[in-house]
Amino acid sequence: MKDKKHAEHMLSIAEKDLSALRGMAKDEIIFHDEIFGFHAQQTVEKCLKAILSYFGVSYPKTHDLMQLLSLCLENEIIIPEEFSSLADLTDFAVEYRYDLLEDEPVKRSEILVSVEAFFNYVHKIIQENNS
Q1: HSE, side-chain direction, 13 A CA sphere, residue 68
Q2: In this model, does residue 1 exceed pLDDT 70?
Q3: How many other C-beta atoms are found inside a 10 Å radius of the C-beta of residue 99?
Q4: What average pLDDT score do residues 35-61 get?
Q5: Rounded Cα distance, 40 and 85, in Å
């Protein structure tokens, strides 16, 4: 059963994470990559849970973006290929929250553009179908 109310709630929470992400995008001194990445991951996770809820698909308590993307695919919810790389943000949900990144710096502007585009994609689906 579709749960439009829960979908809208999850999307509104995702929007708060996205707002935080925008605010920290250019301040690498105060907002370390791990914190930026965490909010990027959280935005995507909540968007995925919003779209799953909207289409009436139950989802597990998980931070694994690939698992949530797979659940969309299994239920014929179209997620364009351009967003598949967002699954790489999964490590920010748990692993990088407790261990510092040792690789090269996160490409914040690229991540922000992708996360915003995904948020807008999900928002459009939920809003268009609620009219």
Answers
A1: 26
A2: no
A3: 10
A4: 95
A5: 12
Residues found in the chain:
131
Q: CA 58 to CA 99: how far, in whole Å? A: 31
Assign 62 a pLDDT band (cuts: 50, 70, 90).
very high
| Contact indicator for 117, 80 with CB cutoff of 8 Å | no
Residues 85/92, Cβ–Cβ less than 8 Å: no
Q: Give the separation between CA 107 and CA 12, rounded to whole angstroms.
A: 25
Which amino acid type is present at position 104? E
User: Cβ(51)–Cβ(1) under 8 Å?
Assistant: no
* CATH class (in words) of the domain with range 4-130: mainly alpha
Higher-confidence residue: 14 or 94?
A: 14
Dihedral of CA atoms 28, 49, 64, 73 in degrees, nearest 10, equals -120
pLDDT of residue 3: 85
Scanning 25-107, the segments in alpha helix (DSSP H) are 33-54, 65-74, 95-98
pLDDT of 100 over the 70 cut: no
